[in-house]
Amino acid sequence: MKVFFFLFLFLLCCTGSNSSHHSATVDGESNPKEDPLQTEVFANKEIEKKKPFKTIQKCATCHAQVRTLGEGRTFDVSGIYPQMDPKKFGEGKKIPVLIESLELNALKKMERGKDVQEKVCIDCHLPHQALVKDRIEIEDRKKNLGLWVTLELIDNIMDVEIKFKSYNSAHRVPAGLASRAYVIVVNVFQKEPLALWHGPKIAKALRTKERLAGLTMARFFVDGNGKLTNHLNLAHSLIDDTRLEHQRFLGEHFLYKIDPDKEVEAVARLYYLPAFPTWSGAFEVMVERAELEPQ
Ligand code: HEC
Ligand code: HEC
Question: In a mutational test of the pocket of ligand 1, which residue from 65, 145, 171 has the highest number of ligand atoms less than 8 Å from its CB?
Answer without folding.
Answer: 171
